[in-house]
Amino acid sequence: MTGNAGSNAFAPGALAIETHGLTKRFGSHLAVDSVDLAVPRGSVFGFLGPNGAGKTTTIRMLLGLVGATSGSISVLGQPMPASLASVLPRVGALVEGPAFYPFLSGAANLHRLDTADRSVDGATRSDRVAQALDRVGLGHAAGKKVKAYSLGMKQRLGLANALLAPRDLLVLDEPSNGLDPQGTREVRSLIRSLAADGTTVFVSSHLLAEIEQLCSHVAVMSSGRIVSQGTLDAVRDQDVSRIRVVTTDPVGALRVLADFGLEPSVATDESTADGDVRVVLAPVPATDPGHRTSGIQPEAIVAALVAAGVPVRGFTVEESSLEDRFVALTGEGFAIAEGHSVR
Amino acid sequence: MSDSPVSDSTLSASTAPGETASVRARPPRGLGLALLASELAILFRRTRTIAMLAALAAVPILIAVAVRVSSSGSSGRGPAFIDQITQNGLFVGVAGLILCIPLFLPLTVGVAAGDTIAGEASHGTLRYLLVAPAGRVRLLIVKFLGTVAFCIAAPLVVVLAGTVIGAILFPLGNVTLLSGDTVSISESLGRALLMSAYVSVSLIGLSAIGLFISTLTDTPVGAMAATIVISVAAQVVGSLDQLAWLHPWLFSYHWLGVVDMLRQPILWSSFGDNAILQLGYVIVFGALAYSRFVTKSILS
Ligand SMILES: Nc1ncnc2c1ncn2[C@@H]1O[C@H](COP(=O)(O)OP(=O)(O)O)[C@@H](O)[C@H]1O
Ligand SMILES: [Mg+2]
């Protein structure tokens, strides 16, 4: 599934981030489960997953904030956390939202965090702080105390902090949180310009729109596992369609669809006028990317549904967007194994 | 919609000169004392720190004013050094310092030391400092040095405020020491500073304890309270004769030995014993803080 056969061919070892079997356990809860990430240098890598998927925990491990339960990490070609001191000066990061001293101004906060990095030149500190603030459009609020900042301004200040020094890699955890649409566009444009400079950008999000417009590569995470990874096109093409059945007998529909080797689920977010009518969705995996329905004949499914006595009110084959893919991969809706009842 | 991440952007890519696709690894420059400077600046510019130091300065000022207002009828009551204030303003700073030793000073040190790591964690800035990367050991040392700076400042503020108000409200003159000897004004000022240094050293063991507690939690108030409770508990234990065997091991054991700095000759052994005891606490609790902090999961 790891589709590295995209437009760019990357030399082996030219990975900005590489993990093998990365696992983090909180008590008995597996927050991150055997994650193998391969982030090519120069890519804008979207790290996609719903809330609680384990994105932030993965990022904390990448940056040496939290020890992994097991697995290995390499960032910019060096093992982590062993090479933390030489790797992190080349990495700008936004982790789990911005965090600052509320009683200091925006500029003073950046100044403070910059002094923590021993590798930078203190003589250029004020200039770099001013440049970073200008770059995120906060120049006017530089002297204002952070407690008077809006969430969006704090988010921008967090980005400015990641840009205080030249970076090889930016790790941005949900950078558009709290931003208005205009701010989101600006962040996107900023990320593009950084990528154009050659910086690898690893950006996590639970919002598809952000990723889809920005990224060359994506990984989709769900319940601690990577369920899909590769170039944007490769991931999008992994299933090209889905079957949508409107019926009053969702259990029967699920059973029939499962018999075709599909993984159907009952949509939870689609309400129908009639309370008994449910929508059953089944992504159709593309075994052969040339064929949109991968050999499964929709006609045969309709016939089977009818033969099984499932009352069909509607049957459609929908082309999938990445959004459908995301929903399918992250298991929104009630996924049902072996055709057991819904509840 | 373009899949390419490198499409031309409307926002100008303000590439710094010399910045290329790969940033070369930047080795550390020197010790990075800028972090210590920034720590001290933040600590001493913080409203809370200023308020604590102001409250400490208020103690000798209150004593002096109270004594001045009621000094017409001289009484034999109260501690001897308070009585002496009326004869010599130089005693005000010393009296204020001794009064602050059991509670006020440990309280402020508990706040400063308890806040070190837990305060950064509660702001969320701990993760950004470590990602910068500050280095965990370096950050811990900087935090400890910041607390030491506070331990130096706090008694100094009491002594200086007391000396100034004493000079304003009372006559100045040669000082009669505990031993009965008399020293000049300038030497007695030196003695007052020496007492301040003694108290600073006395508070360092407690700072190390506070630093360790601060690595255990993300709640600064909890770390502060725990440190203050420990300082009170140590003094309670120190007053129980049944636990006399334990007393020499308490960080508060030599706290009131500060008066030995008023003897002639100065009882330097007292200063040394105190310093060694405090150093022991720094080593033990510094090691505990180190082993805790280098492996701590930063989840705040
Ligand atoms: N400190 C913690 N202790 C226990 N569980 C945690 C902790 N932090 C995160 N988790 C759990 O780990 C999972 C992943 O969380 P997180 O990495 O924050 O997800 P995301 O960033 O994708 O929203 C969640 O189920 C969350 O409840
Ligand atoms: Mg998160």
Automatic annotation (TrEMBL), chain A:
PANTHER family linked: ABC TRANSPORTER, ATP-BINDING PROTEIN (PTHR43335)
GO molecular function: ATP binding; ATP hydrolysis activity
Alphabetized InterPro entries for the sequence: AAA+_ATPase (IPR003593), ABC_transporter-like_ATP-bd (IPR003439), ABC_transporter-like_CS (IPR017871), P-loop_NTPase (IPR027417)
Pfam families on file: ABC_tran
Family: Belongs to the ABC transporter superfamily.
Protein name as catalogued: ABC transporter ATP-binding protein
Protein's UniProt keywords contain Transport: yes
Record keywords: ATP-binding, Nucleotide-binding, Transport
Annotated organism of origin: Naasia lichenicola
Domain ABC transporter: 17-248
From TrEMBL, chain B:
Entry keyword set: Membrane, Transmembrane, Transmembrane helix
Polar residues bias locations: 1-17
GO MF assignments: ABC-type transporter activity
Region (Disordered): 1-24
Ranges annotated as spanning the membrane: 50-70, 90-118, 139-172, 192-213, 225-246, 266-290
Pfam families: ABC2_membrane_2 (PF12679)
One GO cellular component, as annotated: plasma membrane
Protein name: ABC transporter permease
